[in-house]
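User: quick one, sequence for these tokens?
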């Protein structure tokens, strides 16, 4: 039995086929690439199910596993574009089960960037992947810290190895965040809200 998480991408794919890409930059292999290329599996999401042929792409320089499927197939299975799902593959039944995984967490070092506009937040590709956030430059991100909330536009640095969470100095002051300190981040894909708490705080709870 294999398991992990993957991100769904709706693309120009034949309805009876799904393409799987295993992350080449993740910390360890999830085993998604072990599902044999050309095998027919039952794809299950909730009460919806169908038979598909699996095609494996070569490992790619991405930070999270990926499933590509056609728009009609995604509609039938009620799967959504750029959403994260937990997956479980049962070898004996050749069944690939998916269930929503809308909330992801990680930690990051916060820094100030004087060249960054007050209306932007800079998040590197690796952090985006850990949080399940799409790499959509300019996407609005609602950020909550304590009782204060602000919506900022996403800036993605070109350096894939950039792992810091960067804000303009004035924005750091707005929240009272300390440059160089590690904070925990929790992103909810459904609400588009990114919640920030100090690293050693109590477990996270959703903010409105």
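Assistant:
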């Amino acid at each position: 039995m294999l398991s992990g998480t993957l991100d769904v991408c709706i693309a120009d794919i034949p309805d009876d086929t799904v393409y799987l890409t295993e992350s080449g930059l993740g910390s360890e292999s999830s085993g998604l690439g072990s599902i044999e290329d050309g095998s027919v599996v039952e794809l299950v999401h909730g009460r919806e199910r169908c038979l598909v042929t699996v095609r494996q792409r070569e490992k790619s320089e991405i930070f999270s596993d990926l499933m590509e499927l056609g728009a009609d197939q995604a509609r039938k299975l009620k799967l959504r574009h750029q959403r994260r799902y937990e997956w479980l593959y049962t070898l004996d039944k050749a069944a690939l089960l998916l269930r929503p995984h809308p909330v992801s967490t990680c930690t990051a070092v916060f820094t100030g960037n004087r060249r960054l506009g007050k209306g932007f937040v800079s998040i590197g590709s690796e952090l985006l992947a850990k949080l399940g956030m799409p790499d959509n430059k300019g996407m609005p991100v609602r950020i909550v810290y304590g009782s204060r909330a602000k919506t900022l536009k996403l800036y993605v640095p070109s350096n894939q190895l950039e792992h810091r969470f960067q804000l303009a100095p004035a924005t750091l002051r707005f929240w009272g965040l300390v440059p160089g300190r590690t904070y925990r981040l929790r992103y909810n894909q459904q609400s588009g809200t990114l919640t920030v708490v100090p690293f050693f705080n109590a477990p996270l709870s959703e903010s409105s």
